[in-house]
Amino acid sequence: MTEPPGNPVPPQDSNPRNPNPQGWNAQGGDPQGWSTQGWTAPGTNPQGGYPPGANPQTWYPPGWNPAPGQPAYWQPMPGGVGGVPPKPQSRKGLLIALLVVVVVIAGTGITLAATGVFSSGNHGSSSAGSGGGGSHAAKKLWAAPPVGADSSQVHGGWIVDDHTVAYLAQSGITGYDLTTGHQVWQVNPPAGQQVCAMSHASDSGIGAVGFGPDKDHCTVVAAIDAKAGKQLWTTQLTLPSNFQGYTGLVGALSVAETTVVVDDPETAFGFGAADGAKHWEAPKVPDGSDLGGDCTSLDALATGNQTAQILDCDSGGVKVVTYDTATGQVKWTEDASNDRAPGSWWLLSSNPVVAVDARTGMYYLPGQGMPPVPIGVTSGRYASSHHEYGTSVFSGTTMVTVDTGEQETMHTTYSVTAYDITTGKPLWTHKFDPDSSAVVAGLDNGNVKVDYTPPDSDDTQQILSFALADGAMGQGPTFGGGQDGSAEPLAVQLVDDKIVQFGSPKAPVTVWR
Description:
Blueprint: E1 140-143, E2 156-159, E3 164-169, E4 172-177, E5 183-187, E6 194-198, E7 206-212, E8 220-225, E9 230-236, E10 253-256, E11 259-263, E12 268-272, E13 278-281, E14 295-303, E15 306-313, E16 317-324, E17 330-337, E18 345-350, E19 353-357, E20 361-365, E21 373-375, E22 391-395, E23 398-403, E24 415-420, E25 425-431, E26 437-444, E27 447-453, E28 460-467, E29 473-480, E30 491-495, E31 498-502, E32 509-512
Antiparallel strand pairs: 1-32, 2-3, 3-4, 4-5, 6-7, 7-8, 8-9, 10-11, 11-12, 12-13, 14-15, 15-16, 16-17, 18-19, 19-20, 20-21, 22-23, 23-24, 24-25, 26-27, 27-28, 28-29, 30-31, 31-32
C-alpha cells in the first residue's frame, strides 16, 4: 500500500487567520463580498461545511426538511451527535461529489463520541484503544449481519463498554458482544414508530434516542440501558403555538453527568438518565436587541459537567450559552456572531467550547466578555465548495483535526493538524498523499489515532498514530479488504486492541484485531 509521508512539517502558512479581515466583524459577521451563491438556505445542501459525520450530499440542519426525494443523513453533530468519526467514501467518487468526513450517525448528522472515541467527530474529547500495536494485518473477528432498515434514515453506533457495542438504525437498537459478535439484546421502537434521533455516545451505559412515526415527526425522547438492553423511560416533547412549521422537534441528544440533555427548536432540557425526571429547562435568553425578539436553538452538546448551546436570535445574531449539565444553571452567555445564520452553526466541543460557522470557519469561545478566537489559517473566503470540515479530537486546549482545507484542484489532499485553540495557531501539521483519505479515530495516551485510506483504495485502511506533542508519526495495523462496496463504512473506533467499524444497515458492525 502507499505509505503516508514521513515526518510532520511545520504549517506552510504561518499566518493565523486575520481576526478582523476587511469587511468582517470580529464577532463573526460575513466577509465583505460574501454572498449566498454556493450556500443555500437551511433545508438545502450548504456548500461551505457540514456537521461532524454529516454526508455533504444528504445533510440538512435540524428542524428543516430536505428536498423531496432526498434522504436526510445526520443531524448536527451538536454534539456530533455522534462519537466515532465516519469513514469517508471512496475517492473514486470525488468527480461526482465532494465529501465531508466526520460523524457517525447517518440520518442525524451526528457522530459517535462514545466511550471509546467523537463520535464523528468529536463532540467533546474522546478516548480510544490502541487498535493493536505495530504495522501488521489485523484479522477480522466478526461482522454483524445486515439490519433491515433504510440507510437514508438515522443509523450509527455506540461503544457501550469493553464488552458491548450497540448499533442503532431506523428499525431499532441492537447490542452485540464485542469479542464474539453474538447478539445479546434488541430494543425495538414502539409500534408504528421508528428511531429518528440518537445521542452521539452512551455514558455509563446509557444512551438516548428519539422515536416518532418518521424523521419529520420525531417527538419522543427515550433512554436506553445499553448494558442490560432495555428501555428505561420515555417523554413526549411539545412545541408552543408560536413554533408552527417546525418539524422533527427532537434535535441534538447528549448523555453526560447522569443527565440526558435534549435540544429542541425552542430550548434545552435536562432529564435524569436513569429515571427520566425533568431536572431543568434552559431559561429564555433575551436576543439582546431593543426589539425584544426571540432566540431559537441551532445546536446543543453536553460533555462532562458543561453543556453548550448555540442560539439564533431574531435581532441579536448568534449567541452561545453554557450550562451546568446536572443542574442547568447558566455559566455564561456570549455573542458568537452579530448576524443571523440559521442552520449554519454547530458545536465541535462543549468544554472547551469550539463551534463552526459553515460560512467563515471554526471558533473557540473562551467565555463571558471574551470574543471568539478564529482557529486556523485561511485566505479570506473560508466558505467554499472545495472545503471539507473534518473530524476532530480535543486534549485540554489542543484541538487536532483531519480535513482538506481549501482545494484548488479535484485532487484532494487531507492533512492532520494540531491547533492551540487559545491562539488559533497551528502547532504542527502532516499532509497525506493526494487522493487518499483520513478521519480521526480517537485519542490514546497522548497519541491521535487516524484511520487512513491510501489513494485508489476502496477498502484497505490503516491506523496511524501521531504524537499530540510534536506530530511524530507511527504506523499501526492495516484492516479491511474484500468488503462489499455497498457497505458504506461510516466511522472507526478503537477499543483496547480491537478496531470497530460502524457502517450502513447493510454492514452495521465489523470488528478486527
